[in-house]
Amino acid sequence: xxxxxxxxxxxxxxxxxxxxxxxxxxxxxxxxxxxxxxxxxxxxxxxxxxxxxxxxxxxxxxxxxxxxxxxxxxxxxxxxxxxxxxxxxxxxxxxxxxxxxxxxxxxxxxxxxxxxxxxxxxxxxxxxxxxxxxxxxxxxxxxxxxxxxxxxxxxxxxxxxxxxxxxxxxxxxxxxxxxxxxxxxxxxxxxxxxxxxxxxxxxxxxxxxxxxxxxxxxxxxxxxxxxxxxxxxxxxxxxxxxxxxxxxxxxxxxxxxxxxxxxxxxxxxxxxxxxxxxxxxxxxxxxxxxxxxxxxxxxxxxxxx
Amino acid sequence: xxxxxxxxxxxxxxxxxxxxxxxxxxxxxxxxxxxxxxxxxxxxxxxxxxxxxxxxxxxxxxxxxxxxxxxxxxxxxxxxxxxxxxxxxxxxxxxxxxxxxxxxxxxxxxxxxxxxxxxxxxxxxxxxxxxxxxxxxxxxxxxxxxxxxxxxxxxxxxxxxxxxxxxxxxxxxxxxxxxxxxxxxxxxxxxxxxxxxxxxxxxxxxxxxxxxxxxxxxxxxxxxxxxxxxxxxxxxxxxxxxxxxxxxxxxxxxxxxxxxxxxxxxxxxxxxxxxxxxxxxxxxxxxxxxxxxxxxxxxxxxxxxxxxxxxxxxxxxxxxxxxxxxxxxxxxxxxxxxxxxxxxxxxxxxxxxxxxxxxxxxxxxxxxxxxxxxxxxxxxxxxxxxxxxxxxxxxxxxxxxxxxxxxxxxxxxxxxxxxxxxxxxxxxxxxxxxxxxxxxxxxxxxxxxxxxxxxxxxxxxxxxxxxxxxxxxxxxxxxxxxxxxxxxxxxxxxxxxxxxxxxxxxx
Amino acid sequence: xxxxxxxxxxxxxxxxxxxxxxxxxxxxxxxxxxxxxxxxxxxxxxxxxxxxxxxxxxxxxxxxxxxxxxxxxxxxxxxxxxxxxxxxxxxxxxxxxxxxxxxxxxxxxxxxxxxxxxxxxxxxxxxxxxxxxxxxxxxxxxxxxxxxxxxxxxxxxxxxxxxxxxxxxxxxxxxxxxxxxxxxxxxxxxxxxxxxxxxxxxxxxxxxxxxxxxxxxxxxxxxxxxxxxxxxxxxxxxxxxxxxxxxxxxxxxxxxxxxxxxxxxxxxxxxxxxxxxxxxxxx
Lengths: 305, 507, 283
Hints:
heterotrimer, A: about 300 residues, mainly alpha, B: about 500 residues, alpha+beta, Dipeptide-binding Protein, domain 1, Dipeptide-binding Protein, domain 3, eleven-stranded mixed β-sheet, 19 strands, globular
């Protein structure tokens, strides 16, 4: 057990190191940051000055080490366009994205786990067919189209919720539902199949045969055992969720990291892109690490895989 | 199972309860939709029009362009006079205070010019021609230029931001951009970069030609998606969409809606196609004049205006705008003639046309229509769509990497042909993709004389050469379309600077 | 063929198959069935509603787009682009992912460790940001969009195939072949690969749908295929601003995406039921 956790942690560190490599080299070498920083009127001399200042005239591996040294201290450099520390720009927007993604994940879980359970228990019934149709269509629907439809139906026609913006719980409803529905199908499918797995296990049959009430069998025994793969899946869905948040935030003018990242990529504001990508990747990796370790504690049969 | 049903239902009810209070309408706030985040609110530190528009609402200039009378009137200055072609003397208005209580005086004007003359300031290039501000007494200044400066008043009315020295020194350049203080009808309250900028009416505003703000609060909301902006307008979430941020295609929807209306006005913005006629981008096709003429003949400007722009524009053949001083209407015209375009291409050695990268950043319908017209004569385009990102386009233009692009230029709301011709046709400018030594000379000369007749003559000659050489395809001068709530009394301005302080509710 | 027959036994699977065949047919026969040139603009006829609506033109069954191109023809040609995006992405990502999965799963040890680490790393990047960066750095074009999509979708292949290979490797017939002196390459590609092919097919359908949907996201964010190229995602993204005014502009490309995704999904579901009931839930 302990060796597994140590191994997993070491692997996480290595992964993090690779993430820094990719983030740095892909961006820093792709375009000339000095040109991006300087105004359109800058002369070649100005550019040389900026390059010297940033250390861009040194060999690449040294640049990377310098960059890494600063990143470890939480310094991603200054935003070319925002003229403030990139890390601060990301931090300011973190709460909005957290609200959105956590609520969306909540909605996805609340909808998909019961639906997946029903589908599994009533396998082959009309309900099962409906649930799987829902799952398939959920996956086949472009997220932004769904979001705009929600705006038109619930914002413009029914006037139930504000169309866009940030601040009150009412503002959260449409974006969170959009993102939740986007995340739902995969979790729903998994719930259904893990439940089918569990329900066919001997101990469930035994429990049923012993006359344990049906809801107890379902909620106490089956759910507990089906929960492991679901926990792992939720961890793995985080990247998808954050990707979806990028689109959702734009549709609903939601002031989160996703919009910042898109704006920064397009304007070539690389310190902010690096900060966003690094932090998101590190966060998602950490969550997966935690999920792995939690599952390993609950179910020690799982090895390092 | 039952549990989850109950949970879902209660969640829905909760959501409905939350949703109710939003129906309340507040009529003491003007909510305006903008399209993207601003990097700074300091007008000296950006070329973004959003910041410029806002400056004229929270700040004032020494002279003011009255959009109704279409003339310059004194504003923070009480009066002004040219002592000689290089010197303007201004008597400053007395008793004016900045929002933080600092007095407005000669020192504030001097210090504000000092900021603009600092090479660290992004827009310092525009004020190179001004030498200094001489303080004569506490309420008299002289603005001195190096050379005769014919557009001095235009520059002062648009871009000479007046900042409070004490506050600016205290918070510094960056601090000021985050929390600006001026003398204007609205005063800054707060700013969340991705969501909103909040202003309130400045109670001690001196009035002057702009007048006090009529609506007590101003809220700018950043809404990047057009459909979301329109939906917000329809549901009362915003009262006004900044001019130019509503496509003509939305007009039927807005006109059909009994609580909405549109208004429009002609503006200084010129839309055009730029061709790299000196091969800066490494693409040599447009070095040949016949190819440039072919592109000119390939585009049906009238059709674009009647169909895509629904008549909210008029054809132009000049690089300068018809509202500019120095505009010349009588130029070489290239009528729509695809057959001639093909012939010219064949003469230039491209009987089968060629393929070229083509950039565009706004007005996607027109951008695509242009690509279609070019394809029809054999010029195939790899369209690079920069989705509203003007700054990216601007950087690429300056870097010399654009062979062909559909662009627009608003001339910084300076009503003088120099504001567009100098930028794009003087050879020392990074935005220049083609000029002749003669045009260069004409423009340089016009920069430093003040005699209007003589200047007009020089600009006329320059425009004639530019049209003859077909460096651009000048397309049209469009009107700005503003969509707003029906009960809002607001006129868009011909200089593309919205004056929110003039807006009022009718009920 | 047997597989096909069995697939037809599943109702949803056969519906999926039907949609996929329709999709393929449309793409292949586009020049024959499209009533107009999809690039031909006619500004005077722009934004014509579908033919059955007031103001419609019988020449343009689904109406015309922002610059007067026939929407039906663009959707028909769009099938080519969307199929190309889907197929190329799956092919690129599949080859790379399966290869890594095979190597990691078969050799284990150090090689596997690095494969796992790579998978963990890619899994941590939000796909859309990575794709965005790739396209912004390389420039917008159909090829670069495919590269960006493939760069983010090989991970599922690698992950699942690796697991399968590990399981198969331990089976008796492999051990027997090895004892008979079969080389690593032969075992991997002649013996193991055919045994994971069913998973590969199912994964391919999943990743195909993802590619089409993600291509529309990229168009939405302004880094998709160039706007003149008829792609469903591009058409949908381009008309989204007018969903309140002219619903049909976005509705038909949206439906095209929806139905092809649905079709491929259903076909994949059918395949999964046939081949390996467990695989789908893992992806």
